[in-house]
Specification:
The protein contains 19 helices and 13 strands. The protein is α/β, with parallel strands linked by helices and about 400 residues long. Strand 2, helix 12 and strand 3 form a beta-alpha-beta unit.
Length: about 400
């Protein structure tokens, strides 16, 4: 007779397959290391809290999950509906948190903050490909591209602005930006037999990688701009994103660091392009959570009070665009620093590549990142820009 643990293991695997998720996509949505989630599908031995999080991802209560696992009717799973796609269509039309809480109250009834429940709903619709067609219908804003290029003193063809209209939620803006970012990279890559690209970490970069179909990106050669020595955001580190891209259709993972620091240095010298996300401390984000998880909340407060407003390739920047050095947090790639949690290609090296013609792209969504983008281009850390319309309008104010 099957134990309840075996039944739960089989159930979470069946739910994932019903939604057409990959294991990496579920791990990212749950903010757990990929190998941790893979172990749950082999033998679920985690706690009730994590089982509840899995249920929240699929919009199923903990009680219903347990009943499904304990039941003998294998058809019960087929009766489950996932109405998240309808909810996201309302979000495309400009629905606010308050509107969604009223119209879709049956979807948002867990103990999680409403914003997090909505983000999970959007991820569900995205990962099950339910809104792929809707995302592909979004368009660029040529008028905003001209104005942004002018204020940043960039050539017009170095700027892409994607129209996100009335959309209120950051996670969906990043998904839309990902589609257009992948198309832009593929357009650039057509001029190269071998297209070498350095990537940073983050959700926007992850969404770009999602849309790079392996069959249409056979000349791409990726390398990481940083190594992360902590699992706090494992699923969207540069090395993890590259691993997922390489092995998306092979059902296995590569080792954590598939390339060494000297190899990264060599790849950087030959790079055709670099693409980076940009972080902010104005809202709680990946970097904030990583610092809190590894160095503690007090240390995070010290870093922010010390003038850090955001980061580029993990390097902390102040309002003047100067780097705030935190040796036990970030060390320069190739240095002998062994204490740092992160090793990253220096911004001087990236800036030098940009100034010598390498297509160095910053990809960002959301008006709250306007000051960081302005600082990055003032210091010439990049020469190409991919943003959404809300960020473009903030830059023009």
């Amino acid at each position: 007779m099957e134990t309840i643990e075996v039944r739960i293991t089989n159930l979470i695997k069946a739910l994932r397959k019903k939604r057409h998720y990959s294991q990496a996509e579920v791990a990212e949505a749950l903010s757990v290391p990929l190998r941790t989630y893979q172990s749950w599908e082999r033998e679920y031995a985690s706690n009730i809290a994590n089982l509840e999080r899995i249920g929240q991802l699929y919009g199923i209560s903990l009680e219903s999950l347990v009943c499904l696992a304990a039941g003998d009717d294998h058809n019960d799973l087929e009766k489950i509906s996932f109405p998240s796609n309808d909810c996201v269509e309302a979000i495309f039309s400009g629905a606010t948190e308050k509107h969604l809480a009223i119209q879709y109250q049956h979807l948002f009834n867990s103990n999680l903050p409403l914003s997090e429940q909505i983000a999970n709903c959007i991820r569900d619709a995205y990962f099950n490909r339910g809104i792929e067609g809707r995302i592909k219908q979004t368009e660029r804003s040529k008028g905003l591209e001209q104005r942004v290029a002018a204020i940043l003193e960039l050539p017009l063809d170095h700027v892409r602005v994607v129209q996100t209209g009335a959309i209120q939620f950051q996670v969906l803006k990043e998904m839309i930006l990902g589609y257009h970012g992948a198309a832009w990279l593929q357009e650039i890559a057509t001029h190269h037999d071998r297209f070498s690209v350095g990537i940073s970490n983050g959700y926007t970069i992850a969404r770009i990688m999602d849309h790079l179909e392996r069959g249409k990106a056979s000349n791409f050669q990726f390398f990481p701009l940083n190594f992360t020595m902590t699992p706090a955001d494992f699923s969207i580190t540069a090395t993890s994103l590259i691993s997922s891209f390489r092995y998306r259709n092979e059902g296995r993972c590569s080792r954590a660091n598939p390339i060494t620091e000297p190899e990264v240095y060599s790849a950087m010298q030959l790079a055709d392009a670099v693409i980076m996300g940009i972080g902010t401390f104005r809202t709680e984000g990946l970097y904030s959570r990583m610092i809190r998880a590894t160095l503690g909340s007090e240390r995070l407060g010290e870093i922010i009070n010390g003038g850090a407003i955001g980061d580029l390739n993990y390097y902390l920047l102040n309002r003047d665009g100067e780097i705030i050095h935190v040796p036990d947090l970030v060390g320069e790639m190739g240095s002998e620093s062994h204490a740092a949690l992160i090793k990253a290609v220096s911004l001087d090296v990236i800036s030098n590549k940009a100034n010598h013609g390498c297509k160095t792209i910053i990809a960002a969504a959301g008006a709250h990142k306007a000051s960081q983008v302005s600082i990055a281009f003032k210091h010439k850390y990049a020469n190409h820009l991919l943003i959404d319309s809300s960020l473009a309008e903030a830059l023009l104010k």
